[in-house]
Amino acid sequence: MTHAEIEITAELVRDLLHDQHPDLADYPVRLGARGWDNQLWRLGDDLAVRLPWATESADALLHKEHTWLPALAPRLPLPVPVPQRLGEPSARFPRPWIVTTWVPGEPADRAPVTRAAEAATALAAFLTALHQPAPDEAPAGRGRGGPLADHSEGFAKQLASATELGLIPDPDAVRAVWDDAAAAPGWTGPALWLHGDLHPANVLTADGTICGVIDFGDLCAGDPACDLAAAWILLPDDTADRLHAAYRPAPDAATLRRARGWAVGRALSGILIGEAGVRGRPGGKATWGPPAHAALRRLIADQPLPTRRS
Fold this sequence. Notes:
- The chain is built from ten helices and ten strands.
- By secondary structure, it is an alpha+beta fold.
- The strands form three sheets. Strands 1-2-3-5-4 form a five-stranded antiparallel β-sheet, sandwiched between helices. Strands 6-8-9 form a three-stranded antiparallel β-sheet. The chain has a two-stranded antiparallel ribbon with strand order 7-10.
- The longest helix has 26 residues.
């Protein structure tokens, strides 16, 4: 992570707006959140300003959202942050930034889903609507949506790190989930639009169910198993099958096996980021740990027998 050399403040946000989008400059500005790639500042009641601050890749991710998300958003059944304006690099702030619609709700790492049936139905409808064939010029996904086996080395390193920290009580069971997923037949359908990063901090809840999806920086095209992993990452115990039953077209057994692999990798990442947060290390987020541990427990319990392979 490379934190911005320029401190981002409400005054800076107002100055940027005054320079480039003066019709928005008089709205109240207040900090919304500091995310992995960007800071989010509320702009009035209905808008937000996102500015890159902690990763070099954030600039390209914002441009990607500004280019593609306005065309995709109208078909999605859950609210998403639709880009409205693009801010250009300037002497005040040397990186691009965007103004989007504000999506109300609480991140699921802080307010987990409790109304399982409603959340599974809502997420299945969202993924069904999003997972349509993407054009040839659709963006690549930083390794998301491609062959799962390409990530085996990274998975092994994360598992070893988490095990050494005493965070994984049964590493063999975790590896069994991954090995089964990596051995599953690959995706042979068309490359579909994917969110690419459906973890609890990127999904919003209200009254116990899912009410919005944010941060489309990893939007890409590929294997839908990458997003279907969300069934174990976001939903309570014994709910994954409900999401997959409501999703269309119904995923085959190989896709669900690959989805488990994406989910176990995401859970390990969340566990390590959560532990870093507990220890006060840069980039750590303590709230990521509990949902990641819960997801890993679900995946181990839900591991299919070898005879179910397809």
